[in-house]
Amino acid sequence: MxxxxxxxxxxxxxxxxxxxxxxxxxxxxxxxxxxxxHKTNYAxxxxxxxxxxQALVKLGIKPGQVVATMAWNTWRHLETWYGILGAxxxxxxxxxxxxxxxxxxxxxxxxxxxxFLDATFIPIMENLAEKLPNIRAYIIMADxxxxxxxxxxxxxxxxxxxAAEDGDFQWILTDENDAAGxxxxxxTTGNPKGxxxxxxxxxxxxxxxxxxxxxxxxNADSVMPVVPMFxxxxxxxxxxxxxxxxxxxxxxxxxxxxxxxxxxxxxKVSFTAAVPTVWLMLLQYLEGGNRKLPHLKRVAxxxxxxxxxxxxxxxxxxxxxxxxLWGMTEMSPVGTTGSLRAHHGELDYEDQLDIRLKQGLAPxxxxxxxxxxxxxxxxxxxxxxxxxMVRGPAVARAYxxxxxxxxxxxxxxxDTGDVATIDAEGYMQITDRSKDVIKSGGEWISSxxxxxxxxxxxxxxxxxxxxxxxxxxxxxxLLVLVPKEGxxxxxxxxxxxxxxxxxxxxxxxxxxxxxxxxxxxxxxIQKMALREKYQNHRWTDEAG
Length: 544
Ligand code: ADP
Prior knowledge:
Blueprint lengths: L12 H10 L4 E5 L5 E5 H17 L7 E5 L4 H12 L3 E4 L6 H10 L2 E6 L4 H7 L8 E4 L14 E3 H6 L15 E6 L9 E5 H12 L11 E4 L11 H8 L2 E4 L6 H10 L4 E4 L1 H13 L9 E5 L5 H11 L2 E7 L6 E4 L11 H8 L10 E5 L14 E6 L22 E9 L5 E6 L4 E3 L2 E3 L1 H8 L5 E11 L3 E10 L7 H9 L10 E4 L13 H7 L11
Parallel strand pairs: 1-11, 3-4, 3-5, 4-8, 5-6, 6-7, 10-11, 10-12, 12-13, 13-14, 23-24
Antiparallel strand pairs: 1-2, 8-9, 14-15, 16-17, 17-18, 18-19, 20-21, 22-23
C-alpha cells in the first residue's frame, strides 16, 4: 500500500514564505557595510527577495544558471540568496579570502553569470574581471549614494535594480532535487572542488541543524551568525532562523571583539556561531574591560577543534554554554555535536568537559563509521583510530562536473579525510586530518589534542603541532607557538605544563616560537605551509 500523504516539495523559498506568513515583523538587524545599523523584518526581506528575483529574470537569468555572491552577512545578502533561489537559479558563495587565482578558477568553473558584491570587494573583482568572460553584470550591493566609482564594466546598483521592480512575482519553483547552492571546498591540495547542494538537501539539513542537540535556536532567540554565509552556508543559520522565526543579527564586515560585543549586547543576542578564532578575539576583548554577556546563552563553535580553556571560560566567567560542532562543506556542513547524554548530568564538571570536548554525537540523518586502511570497520572503543566515513541526505555524492572522480563507495560512504576515534557511547573524536597525522614509531599522535592543551597555557595565543621526519621514530611532533602579546614562554615551561596532560611519547620534541601561524581562507591552520617552513628544522636531540 502507498502512503496517501501530500508529496510536498522541499523548496527553500517555502522557508521564507513561512517566515513572511507567520513571523512577518520579526527583526533582522545588520551592521551595514556603509557603517550604520540597519533594521528590517521577514516581510520586507520577502518582498525584496521577490524584487531581486524579478530583476534577475529581467537580466536574463534562466533556471539552473549560477549567480555568485561575494558579500558579508547582511540583510542584502540574505534577500539576494532567496532572490536567486526564487528565480530558479543557483547561488554560489565566494570566499573573498581565497587567492585571486582560486577565485578566478571557481567563478569560471561554476560558470557564474552574474556577481553580487559588497562595495568593499570591488578592487578584488576589478583585478579579475578581464579573466571572467561569463559575467554579464556586477551588482554592487549598495544604494546610489554609496556607489563607489568603479572600472568594472556592467556595474549595476543593487538598490536601483530592486526599486525598478514591484515584487509581484511567483517564485520559479524547480524540482526539489535541483541545485540550490554551490560552495567550493578551500582546496588546500589541488583546485577547489564545488559542492552542489539541492533544495531538498538544504531543507533537510536545516531540520538537522534545528534539533535541540545540534544548533536548535527557537523563535524566542536572537540569533547572530558570525560565521559568514560564504563559509559552508553560515552553517545553515540563514535558513534556520527564518524557519523558526528567530530574530537575526548580521555582523557585516566587522568581526573584531569590540564590534561583536557591541551587537551581542545591544541586540540581546542569545545564540551565536563562529570558528574559534572569532571567540578568542571576543574573550580577549571581554577580559580587557571587565565586560559581561548577560543575554547570551549558547555559542556554537566549529570549523576547528575547540580548546578546553575556551569552553571553561565561557562557562565559568560568562555563564554561556558552548556547543562544539564538527562538520565540513561536503556535509552542508553539520556533522556531529559534543552534546551530553542524560546520565552525564551525574558527572562532575571536568568529566563532563572531557565529553563536550569531543566532536560528538551524530544526529539523525548523519551516519558515520571509522575504517582501517583496507576499509574494514573499526570498533567503537574510543581507542581505535580510523578514517572517518559519513553518509546521509545532506552529504555530497559527487563534486561539480565530476571533479575528483568517484567520491563515495557503493554504499554511499564519503571519506571525510579526518582521522577519528568513536567511543562506546558513540562520541566521535577527531585526532587529525589524514594528511596531517603524525606517525611516531608506528603509532599515531593527535596533533589536535596537543594544540588544544597548549593554548590553555596563559602565555600562549595559538598553537600548531606538525610531524617532521626523525631518524629513529619516522616522525616526531614539533610544537609551533604564537605567544600572547608581551609573553615569551620557555620550552621548559610549556613542557612542564603539558607533562601530566599527555602520554610521555606524545611530548613535542621541540618547541619554537613564531609571530604568526598561516591560515586557510576558512581560518584553519595551514599545516602544509608550516611543514615546508620548518622542513630543515634540526631536532635539538637527534638521538630522540
Ligand atoms: P568548513 O568549510 O565548514 O570549515 P571544510 O570543509 O573547509 O569545512 O573543513 C572541514 C574540516 O574542518 C573537517 O574535515 C575537519 O578536519 C575540520 N573541522 C571542522 N570542525 C572541526 C572540529 N570541531 N574539530 C576539529 N576539526 C574540525
